[in-house]
Amino acid sequence: MNTLSNHQPQLAGAMLAVAAVLAFAACNVNTGSQTATTPTQPGAPAPGQPAAQPGQQPAAAPAAAPAAAGTTNTPGLSFNGQPVAPPAPTEWWKQKSDDPVDALVQKQVGSDFNIQINHKDNYIEAVGMGVCNLNLVKDAKQCKVAALEAACVVAKTKLQEQIETYVEKQSVVVMGALERSVAIEATKGVLKGVRYISYFDDTSPGPNYSMGCKVGLLLFGDKNALGAAIIDAAKPDGTQPFNFNPQGAKIGGVAIDMLTKPYTGLIIDAKGLGGRPDFAPRILAENGQKVFSRDDVNKDYIYKYGVVGYAGSVDDAKKATDRVGDNPLIIKAAKLSDSKTDVVISDGDAAGVLAANQKTKFLGEKRVFIVF
Asked: Fewer CB atoms < 10 Å away: N or C end of the chain?
């Protein structure tokens, strides 16, 4: 395990100044409008748990795990008046950077932070570390709170830095330099809605108190979400639409016109091809023409759900009946684009998808899933 407390000596010098000037009369932290309280019934997801999906109330977090050896319960932070959750058993921020991870989960590990972007469960999270030297701040409670305050500053700063890096790497159908600049600027406003999710105590024996703070954002959820800001900054796709004859279109050798039950959604199975999630993936035919892109989706759906949904298996995608319905069309991807973000299907399947879509218009809603 890559326990971040191993880095306390390097962090201590940087955080001592913060700890020395933060004088608290009681063990409370106020970060913006968030004020620390003792956790009782968490209103935000615990570490490693997905954020609430759009339109749903946040699920009750599981009961707090017993404190690990060498840790103590410390006042946490609250979000919208609800106490945040104490640590859960799964502590992904302590995993090694080279550990195998889900294809839909991207991680970055640093000396005083960890970041996770989860396209499957629709969130980005960052964990920051803060250290306070008890030899300089004599009161143990004040020292822990100072370390926690510093940890939250680190987490939020690193979250913004990672978002900017992520935007630079996103294809979003080849954003230009100006579009990327606009998107990065837009994400700064999105950070005002950051969710303070949880804290943890990583203190080891010695004079330094080491605290962690976890913050997060939804990728999609409304027009103020991170993904929505990026999509709005991107130019229209502009790829030439696939030209097909709906009269002869078939799926699995069966003519679309002969189907007795219309398709209610689309699942593209690209498992094992090495795909990379993107905010605006496309479905292309083998001839390079467009079958589907963000231009085909109503903006209100994009803001709430994203251009597509992602899943780790076809079975998982089929379970999302609120998205793909009870009779999704399942197509095997032929390959990926050079960017590894767009999926390519055969020209025959492309014709079948578009012909099926003429009956139920699933491409224009939230009914497309990609399996990586």
From this structure: N
